[in-house]
Every structure is written in structure tokens, then in C-alpha cells.
Specification:
Blueprint: H1 2-24, E1 29-35, E2 39-41, E3 45-54, E4 60-70, E5 73-75, E6 81-83, E7 86-95, E8 99-109, E9 113-125, E10 132-146, H2 156-171, E11 174-184, H3 196-202, E12 206-212, E13 218-223, H4 233-252, E14 257-265, E15 271-277, H5 280-291, E16 293-294, H6 302-311, E17 318-323, H7 328-339, E18 344-350, E19 366-370
Parallel strand pairs: 2-10, 13-14, 13-17, 17-18, 18-19
Antiparallel strand pairs: 1-3, 3-8, 4-7, 4-9, 5-8, 6-7, 9-10, 11-12, 14-15, 14-16
Length: about 375
């Protein structure tokens, strides 16, 4: 009789818990994933927070939280994880009644990009592990990973030359009646522009900065088209980093800068172009746009897509081309600039497989940039 009562009690317990877990397991259960930052730079660490809140009397001792994201977010804790084309996480969590639980998962942003976690699956079992119930939670969580820095000191001499050319053109169009700001004196500044009152106050030479009577900008062109069937991811990514570094350097000098590419935006699928602008907000716009460049799709011909934009640039614009592609069609696009003695710069990233193969006439305009292979 005692054994029968125990069996009936166990059966009743099983049926009750089965009923309650079926009906109420995800009631008042909230699941949230969040990044510690909205944006990071390539090579930085970010934390992903998993926050669960169980606001009911029913404990959840066996709960799994599953989500998928990019393999380029390198998590330190690889337990309960699997990496194929993506990163898959499956965490086993126990959360009691009226409890809030937060877990921190640190990861390294190993690659520039725009990453998301769209949803998470939460799986619950009853106390006897006889069934599993699944609920899907929308996350819509996004993270920008900006291009990493490059050593612009290696570009110091050509950058000063570019900057001097740009500023010389701007000074030719200065409006002396339109005052804009005051900045530090530079060797290329005219002594007439020195603001002696401001210089006396600060103890260092200051110059007036005026607005200009005509629009003038630096136009950065990024060409990720390849010379061969081989994909050179190292050159693609370094080209993007170089573009970011030069854009920021010119913008910090107050020079409007635009970026034109034959790449596509990973969100819209459109060719990515960033109109000219300046200031801190424009730097952020450039960082976000360059993060969204999709290098997994084939790149259309640079000459076909941007040749007209390239050739019709204004006489007051300064052009910088970043391209490890060097075939005849691109060289022909540049020839009129050389024949007309127009100042421009062609930065060519190189590695062991890709070297500079242009004709002699291009040499004064070319800035080589060697991308060193990482040792394993």
C-alpha cells in the first residue's frame, strides 16, 4: 500500500510539473542580449551580455539559450560553442523563481564588418527531461566594427605633399570676408593670415581660417577589383583601412572628403558612396559606411562603374586612388591626368603575389604600400 501511494504520488508530481512547465515555462520570462558598445575598432574587445529574468514562482533549472552570429567575433569562452561558417552558441542556464541572471561573454573583434544577432532560441525542459519547449526571442542586435588603424607615419611625406597641394588650391579660392575659425600656424601658411591677437594670448602663432568661394574636396576612390581570379583579402582590408586613415586626416584639417567605391553596402546592396563632408559626424558616417562594405560579393568593374565620376572630377578636387588592380583599362583612365599634369595620388597596396606593374609614366604619382603577411 505504501509503495502504491508512493507511485501514485510520483505520478501526480510528474503530471503536475509536466502541466505547469508546458503551460507556464515562458510566462514572465524575459531574455535580452546586448553589447557593451554600439561600435568598436578592429582588434578591440567587446562584451556580450546575456540577461534573463524569471518573474514567476516556477523555477527553470534546465534552460538553454541559443544564438548565432559571425565567426569573426572571437569569443574567449568557447565552451558550448561551435564554429562553421558562423558562430553558434548554446548556453545551459539555471534560473530560479523571481531571479535575474546576467552573464558576460567577452569577444575580440577580429575583422571589420557589420554584425548582428537577429534572434535567440530559448529551450526549456521539465524536471524529468521528458520534453523540450522552444520559444524564439527577437533581438535585432547590431554591432559596427570599424576598420583598424594604419601607421600613417609611413605616409607622412606623401601626405604632407597632398595636403600642401589641397591647401594651395583652397587658398586660391579663399573669401577673405568669410571668417570660419582659428587654428595653429603651419609652415605653408601665409604670414598675412596670422591672427596676432590670438597668438599673443596663447603664446603660439595662430592663423585665421576663412571659408571658400568655390566647393573643393578630396575624393577618395577605393577599387577592390582583383587583377586575377585569386582573392586577396589582406589587400582588400588594407585598402579600406588606408581610405579611412586618409579620410580622417583630411577631415581633421577641415577639408571636405568624399569616398567612392565599386563595392556594395551589405545592408542595401547598393554601390557604396559617401558624399563630401567634414566634422566629427562625417568621420562617424565614414566609419560606419566602410564597416558595411561587403567583400563576399564580386566587385563590378571600377572603370565601368566609376570611370565617369573619376574623369569628371572638378579641377579644384584632389583625387586619391587606392587600388591594387593595375590593368590596362585603369591605366588608360588615368592617362589624361598625367598628360594634363594634374596632381593626384595612386596608392597601391602590395603583397608577395601582387607587385607594382604600371608603366614608367605613373611612377611620380604612385605610393606603394606593402602589406606584410602575418606569421603563423
Amino acid at each position: 500500500m505504501i509503495l502504491l501511494s508512493a507511485m501514485l504520488g510520483a505520478l501526480l508530481l510528474y503530471l503536475l510539473q509536466n502541466y505547469f512547465y508546458h503551460k507556464y515555462w515562458n510566462k514572465n520570462l524575459s531574455v535580452k542580449l546586448s553589447f557593451s558598445e554600439e561600435a568598436a575598432v578592429e582588434g578591440e574587445e567587446v562584451i556580450l551580455y546575456e540577461t534573463l529574468m524569471n518573474k514567476k514562482l516556477l523555477p527553470l533549472p534546465i534552460l538553454k539559450v541559443k544564438f548565432m552570429t559571425s565567426k569573426y567575433l572571437a569569443f574567449q569562452d568557447m565552451n558550448n560553442s561551435n564554429i562553421t561558417d558562423n558562430f553558434y552558441r548554446n548556453d545551459l542556464i539555471s534560473i530560479m523563481m523571481y531571479q535575474k541572471l546576467t552573464r558576460s561573454l567577452t569577444f575580440l573583434c577580429s575583422h571589420r564588418g557589420y554584425y548582428s544577432i537577429q534572434n535567440a532560441d530559448v529551450v526549456c525542459s521539465d524536471l524529468f527531461l521528458t520534453f523540450e519547449k522552444v520559444a524564439n526571442y527577437d533581438m535585432n542586435l547590431n554591432l559596427y566594427v570599424y576598420p583598424g588603424p594604419v601607421e600613417l607615419t609611413k605616409f607622412e611625406t606623401p601626405f604632407k605633399k597632398m595636403l600642401g597641394t589641397v591647401l594651395t588650391r583652397r587658398f586660391m579660392n579663399e573669401d577673405p570676408f568669410e571668417f570660419r575659425s582659428i587654428r595653429e600656424y603651419q609652415p605653408y601658411d601665409n604670414i598675412k593670415s596670422v591672427n596676432w591677437k590670438a597668438s599673443a594670448k596663447t603664446g603660439s602663432l595662430k592663423v585665421n581660417v576663412n571659408d571658400y568661394t568655390s566647393s573643393q574636396q578630396v575624393k577618395l576612390f577605393i577599387n577592390l577589383e582583383a587583377d586575377s581570379i585569386w582573392k586577396h583579402e589582406d589587400l582588400e582590408e588594407e585598402s579600406i583601412r588606408i581610405a579611412a586613415a586618409f579620410a580622417f586626416a583630411f577631415i581633421k584639417q577641415g577639408i571636405p572628403t568624399s569616398i567612392h567605391t565599386n563595392t556594395r553596402d551589405i545592408i542595401t546592396g547598393d554601390l557604396l558612396t559617401i558624399p563630401a563632408g567634414s566634422g566629427a559626424s562625417h568621420i562617424k558616417t565614414i566609419q560606419e559606411a566602410l564597416s558595411r562594405i561587403d567583400t563576399t560579393k564580386a566587385f563590378p568593374s571600377f572603370v565601368a562603374t566609376l570611370g565617369e565620376e573619376f574623369q569628371t572630377s572638378g579641377s579644384s578636387d584632389y583625387i586619391i586612388l587606392i587600388s591594387f588592380y593595375q590593368k590596362a583599362d585603369l591605366q588608360e583612365l588615368l592617362l589624361p591626368f598625367i598628360e594634363n599634369r594634374t596632381d593626384f595620388s595612386w596608392i597601391i597596396p602590395t603583397n608577395r603575389e601582387v607587385t607594382i606593374t604600371t608603366g614608367d609614366g605613373f611612377e611620380p604619382y604612385i605610393i606603394p604600400w606593402e602589406v606584410k603577411a602575418f606569421s603563423s
